[in-house]
């Protein structure tokens, strides 16, 4: 079987995965989720011309006064009477300007003696310290496009736009299955032959940044029937993710177990390093991703396939990790016949690849804050050469 290029594999994975239904949730529960529809403003912001400062509302053409201070405007007032010529109104930040006023004299620049007011400094142009009606956004304006992620700034915008609830993609459920006779749960004793299972906690940590619900189904031994029944039990999830047992050894049983459980495999073996044995398919309505067991391979394939899949299902417009380019600080060897995703960190002088690129080197992986993408067949690279990087979450 020839190796499938990463972009083709990602496209095939998404083709297996229709987006989830949408639901309307209170705005406070929408953080991190993706809008299911364009969001338009239900109101003008500001609703009318407002003062940006504490001071006096005046007619700018009358500066530097004197004015007679008559009315007052505070935030929360409306329907103010016309400001007669020659008069000023005391005003506070966020309060509406009385009709006729067109500038704010800030109180630091005002001299007041009883109800007599004069401007003590600088010319006062019309519009000074005024936030004009709808200058932030107007009613019916498009605030946020479908597929946008709702972070803190987007939530503020939606609320000011008049929305108390928003339509978003549902949260997918992700079931994690760790395969391997050698695995024990985190923190358990490790007699000879055993090691702690780190993949599920690592994947749960990666998924914690996304709106999804993670179920850890624990460790399954390298046994065809045990794996097949574990996969079958996991079918209530939207996505099943296994780690380990994905390669070609006699104990690598995930693929036959998936087929035994009734799954239809769509692809296996990707033109990437690490991560070659990655596989994907469907079992009923559930998507299946079989990640390699090596912790670094599982980390990289999760970054390039699992996280984008969760974003896609939840309605994201941009599901893939962003890429940029940056200069290298240290040299790189030529790549082989697979795309390399090298673990690296962003130093002051450029990108530094971590010392060990072995797919079991977790100490080196933990120093990385980005991946360098080096396409298959790239020649050696020297310090100063620009490379494509993917920042890590
Ligand atoms: N003859 C070949 N051998 C291998 C090939 C190949 O093409 N031909 N591919 C290699 C590549 S590339 C990878 S990647 C690995 C992946 O193998 P598996 O997915 O079958 O993973 P395992 O053999 O089950 O485990 C590999 C390694 O990772 C450790 N492991 C597994 N699960 C966990 C876990 N939950 N937590 C921590 N560590 C885990 C496991 O003990 C092994 O050391 O295959 C190559 N072989
Ligand atoms: O493709 Mo594997 O993940 O190199 O060790």
TrEMBL record:
Assigned protein family: Belongs to the MoeA family.
Required co-factors: Mg(2+)
Enzyme nomenclature, EC number: 2.10.1.1
Lineage of the species this protein comes from: Bacteria, Pseudomonadati, Pseudomonadota, Alphaproteobacteria, Sphingomonadales
Superkingdom per UniProt: Bacteria
Reaction(s) catalysed (UniProt annotation): adenylyl-molybdopterin + molybdate = Mo-molybdopterin + AMP + H(+)
Broad EC category: transferase
Keyword Isomerase: no
Gene this chain is encoded by: moeA
Gene3D superfamilies: MoaB/Mog-like domain, MoeA, C-terminal, domain IV, Molybdopterin biosynthesis moea protein, domain 2, Molybdopterin biosynthesis moea protein, domain 3
Keywords: Magnesium, Metal-binding, Molybdenum, Molybdenum cofactor biosynthesis, Transferase
Domain MoaB/Mog: from-to ranges: 175-312
Name listed for the protein in its UniProt record: Molybdopterin molybdenumtransferase
Keyword Magnesium on entry: yes
Pathway recorded for this protein: Cofactor biosynthesis; molybdopterin biosynthesis
InterPro entries linked: MoaB/Mog-like_dom_sf, MoaB/Mog_dom, MoeA-like, MoeA_C_domain_IV, MoeA_C_domain_IV_sf, MoeA_linker/N, MoeA_linker/N_sf
Species this chain originates from: Sphingomonas bisphenolicum
CDD domains: MoeA (cd00887)
Function field: Catalyzes the insertion of molybdate into adenylated molybdopterin with the concomitant release of AMP.
